[in-house]
Amino acid sequence: MRDNRSMWISLLGPLQVRSGEGAVVNIGGPRPRSLLALLALNAGRVVGTEQLIDGLYGQEPPDGAVNALQSQVSRLRRGLRAAGVTVPIEMHSAGYLLAADPEQVDVHRFTRLVREGRRSLEAGEYDHAAALLREAVGLWQGPAFADVADAPFAAAQAVRLAEQRVGAVEDLAEAELALGRHAALVAELREAVADHPLRERLRGQLMRALAGAGRQAEALAVFEDVRRLLAEELGADPSPELTGIHLTVLRGEVRSEVRPRAMRKAAGTGLPARVSSFVGREEELARVGELLVAGRLVTLVG
């Protein structure tokens, strides 16, 4: 029996299986592919028979659905075996189990990398966070379950994973901004904003990247664009967080240099704040903030 520990299953894009030697495995038609995707999504865990039937057939299961499922499992096993790959699909009293390490499936590796990357980000370990999150985002080869999208289980899972991907992109941008990589981030963030134009965190990160790269006017234009879009699409104003970033850009306080980890943590330790050119202007800045919440444009003179 061939060792399958090096096998790799991709779900973050078109379904693909690679053998331990790196060869792409032909899995067969839509139904066996959907079955493998559903089992791989739960790699190492028993998937109940009813869950498999619902995931493959939805509200219209065939007569003799249990027998139909057994037939699909047999087809999948034969297809993999013909390709020279032995992937244990175990039958249990409650259902079936793909006996693979979750780390052999890109979805599970993505989830782990994002979790660890977010933990490093929260700890101020920005280089490590960026490396983990960059690897996580790089696992994506297109929309999740792209070629089995018609399977009843796929749509909800694809939406869930797409949301996690955007969150990972945002966390990666946060780590890169903390490392002072403002200019290098602009193109990536523009692409992300184009895909998710109402995502305010991405807009704020793009504003910070532009401002940190010395492109303040473009950063301010991003804010005006999202403020218009929010009003037109949702009848809403920008969040206080995004408005705060706008104020920071107006003040010229977005900085492009890398700050040591100790300096970043000092913000919450009661150490003196960094002196800026706006000392003594607290009242004026507070008034600007009030006007930005109430209106769409504030002109500063002098």
Keywords:
single chain, 302 residues, mainly alpha, Arc Repressor Mutant, subunit A, Serine Threonine Protein Phosphatase 5, Tetratricopeptide repeat, 2 domains, three-stranded antiparallel β-sheet, 12 helices, 56% helix
Any overview of this molecule?
- This protein has two domains: 1-179, Orthogonal Bundle (Arc Repressor Mutant, subunit A), CATH 1.10.10.10; 180-265 and 276-302, Alpha Horseshoe (Serine Threonine Protein Phosphatase 5, Tetratricopeptide repeat), CATH 1.25.40.
- Strand 5 and strand 6 (95-98) form a beta hairpin.
- The protein is elongated, with a radius of gyration of 25 Å.
- It has a three-stranded antiparallel β-sheet, with no helix packed on it. Strands 4-6-5 form a three-stranded antiparallel β-sheet.
- The model is unreliable at 262-283 and 292-296 (pLDDT under 50).
- The longest helix is centred in the middle third of the chain and has 25 residues, at 154-178.
- Helices cover 56% and strands 6% of the residues.
- It has 302 residues and is mostly helical.
- It holds the Pfam family Trans_reg_C.
- It comes from Streptomyces phyllanthi.
- Keywords: DNA-binding, Transcription, Transcription regulation, Two-component regulatory system.
Layout: helices, strands, pairs:
Blueprint (H helix, E strand, L loop, with lengths): L7 E3 L5 E3 L5 E2 L4 H12 L4 E3 H9 L7 H18 L6 E3 L3 E4 L7 H17 L3 H13 L15 H25 L3 H14 L4 H13 L3 H19 L5 H12 L9 H5 L16 H13 L8
Antiparallel strand pairs: 1-2, 2-3, 4-6, 5-6
Helix pairs in contact: 1-3, 4-5, 4-6, 5-6, 6-7, 6-8, 7-8, 8-9, 8-10, 9-10, 10-12
GO molecular function, one term: DNA binding
InterPro entries: AfsR-DnrI-RedD_regulator, BTAD, OmpR/PhoB-type_DNA-bd, Sig_transdc_resp-reg_C-effctor, TPR-like_helical_dom_sf, WH-like_DNA-bd_sf
Family: Belongs to the AfsR/DnrI/RedD regulatory family.
